[in-house]
Amino acid sequence: MKKMLAAATLALTLSASGLAFAAPLKIGMITTLSGGGAGLGIDTRDGFMLAIKNAGNKDITVVTEDDAQKPELAVQIADKMIQSDKVDILTGIVWSNLLMAVAPSATAQGKFYVSTNAAPAQLAGAACNKLYFNAAYQNDNLHEAMGQYANKGYKKMFILAPNYPAGKDSLTGFKRYYKGDLAAEVYTQVGQTDYAAEIAQMRASGADGIFVFLPGGMGIAFMKQFAQSGVKIPVMGPGFSFSQDVLPAIGDAALGAKASGQWAPDFDNAASKKFVADFQKEYNRLPSIYALQAYDAAQLITAAASKASVKDAAAFGAELKKADIKSPRGNFKFNTNQHPIQDIYLTEVVKNNGVLTNKTVEKIFSDHGDAYAKDCKL
């Protein structure tokens, strides 16, 4: 009886100081911390680690490594983390081509993968897996929202994205909802920094609107060159093209740009206000969508770990799927394919006290899922 009372007291103490885990947990974070996509990975890492800190539990270890945006390096790191570091869960990859190289192998080795960003169509549909969860969206989703928005007055759109899985999903998603004509559909090189030829095409295309999905350094380069070109066609994109991590580098050229996202820093709910305040205090900057998604991924993992051991895959997966968290984005639940069902909003780049940021304009979709869940047999 004394031992039982002592154990109960210890559990209460752990609960008072933070989430009491069913067992120690080791997480491997592979993300992009160098090169043109470093801003995305840094925000991913920082958002994730903020939630880990807020969980307040010492039984969790996070091992972080830089994939340098190279698929072959990501695979090497993942294998080392699984086989040598003995991680229980993998997370953090920003780019869909890297995720497609890592996630199927990780789940085949019995490891959970919780995505903070990349969300290729294959893993949402026929290649879904009980050990794979996505805390962000499905790649098509934010682009679908902009296709829906573009129906309000845009008759002929020029659409552009990098030639890799997320870029293809992007334009597929946009076209799924856009009802007008296309002036052109263009795929560029991943990591491209010179867009003179594409901007010349835009100028001559007769388009009345431009949709671009160019995350990280690609978007910075494009928007600066587009502003210098004098082309006056309105530019829009998903939230990644105008996310908080790139706005300072783009500068005033981004003002007025419309985008889509499942969250923005001005969200008026308690969880969002706390997230923004905590992030600013910890890192002295506003968080981006990438930070928000990683924050929620860590919240999902720590919430599940407080109820079930990751060693019991069925129980841990069931707890993950409950999505028992207070997300800054508000409504959030998992679809049958373990990808989010959530609201998606239109945002506009504005200046708030001299700082470029995204302001919420209106809701585009409520409780929006993805087109591939029907193909998932979980």
Keywords:
single chain, 378 residues, alpha/beta, Rossmann fold, 2 domains, eight-stranded mixed sheet, five-stranded parallel sheet, 13 helices, 21% strand, disordered N terminus
Could you walk me through the main structural features you see in this protein, from its secondary elements to its overall organization?
- The protein has 13 helices and 13 strands.
- It is of the alpha/beta class and 378 residues long.
- The protein folds into two domains: 2-139 and 267-342, Rossmann fold (3-Layer(aba) Sandwich), CATH 3.40.50; 141-263 and 344-375, Response regulator (Rossmann fold, 3-Layer(aba) Sandwich), CATH 3.40.50.
- Helix 3 runs parallel beside helix 4 and helix 6 packs parallel to helix 7 (165-177).
- The protein is globular and about 60 Å long.
Secondary structure topology:
Elements: H1 2-17, E1 25-31, H2 38-55, E2 60-66, H3 71-83, E3 89-91, H4 96-108, E4 112-115, H5 121-124, E5 132-134, H6 141-150, E6 156-162, H7 165-177, E7 181-188, H8 196-204, E8 209-212, H9 217-229, E9 235-238, H10 247-250, E10 258-261, H11 270-283, H12 289-305, H13 313-322, E11 332-334, E12 340-352, E13 355-368
Parallel strand pairs: 1-2, 1-3, 3-4, 4-5, 6-7, 6-8, 8-9, 9-10
Antiparallel strand pairs: 10-12, 11-12, 12-13
Secondary-structure element order, as H and E? HEHEHEHEHEHEHEHEHEHEHHHEEE
Structural class by sheet pairing and helices: alpha/beta
- Termini separation: 43 Å
Number of structural domains: 2
**Residue share in helix:** 40-55%
What is the radius of gyration?
Answer: 21 Å
Strand content: 15-25%
CATH level-3 fold name of the largest domain: Rossmann fold
Q: Quick one: overall form?
A: globular
